[in-house]
Amino acid sequence: MLPYATIVAEAFGENFDFPSPVVEGGGSGAGRQKLCQGVGESTVDIANSSSRISQSDIDLCAQNGVTEIMEVRIGYDGIVFASDVNGQEFAFTPADIYNALGRNILKDGAIVANPNTSWEQVNPAFQPQNILVFVPGTKHGTREVFDDKVIIAGCEATGAMEAFAAANGGDEDRAEELCMELRTDGRSIDIDGDYTETLARVDADKNGIGVFGLSFYQNNTDKLRVATMNGVVPTVDSIAGGEYPISRPLYFYVKNAHLGVIPGLKEFVEFFVSDDIAGPDGPLAAYGLVSDPELAATQAAVAAETPMAPLN
Known about the structure:
Elements: H1 2-15, H2 28-35, E1 46-49, H3 55-63, E2 69-84, E3 91-92, H4 94-101, E4 104-107, E5 110-113, H5 119-122, E6 133-136, H6 141-158, H7 160-167, H8 172-179, E7 188-191, H9 195-204, E8 209-213, H10 214-218, E9 224-226, E10 228-229, H11 236-240, E11 247-255, H12 265-272, H13 275-278, H14 283-286, E12 290-291, H15 295-303
Helix pairs in contact: 4-6, 7-8
């Protein structure tokens, strides 16, 4: 969300008499927590988020007097795996990523500590290269999508999920927890900063593979080579058409108590979701955003200042 929000903030300052909003990074979870710190001019008006708000966030908001939140979905983005532009070309499946990064994997019918150190051990189609993947830290919205659509999907595909469940009396929740445990021997490294930090780590170690948002990759094609996933190249079209398997909705959350109080806030939110900005021919699409087919409904909800309904 950070690059999209920055683009919109700059455009808003150029087209309105209000100053450009201040946009800060730091991760989806941290941003939502700041939103929920309370109400008042010294508190955050909007939280950008590449994953949906959690019930714990909503509970924290309520505890601090933030009782109405407006959920705004602007569109979709994809999660990509990319490495040095001059490195080998990878064609991944979720099973490949799980067998590279899972703390414990299924090998020869038994659950074992992950023995793989090089990519050709994971998949003989790959060239020898030390396994090193920079994954989003746990406070990033990207991590939720990474865990769900790559790690858990790969765990299921390899049979490890079933084996974990069998070893724990059929407890599927425990099996899922075990699937999401990544190795801690330096092959999988959490990145708590933004994608620029991940890019710097890949640049510093040419064996590295980073997890990025599609839009960030598209702005750095001179430095990165993107991998396919299940044989599909990540593009705006493959995400919009549903072919690419790792996509995510992008949101921002607005503190309703600040609407009509903080000058320009309502105008900024309406501007952000306008056809001219978030539509398929708007500037955000040029940076990789897949426009939401239900954008008109979002525009109507913003106009009416409709607070989000309960999650359950």
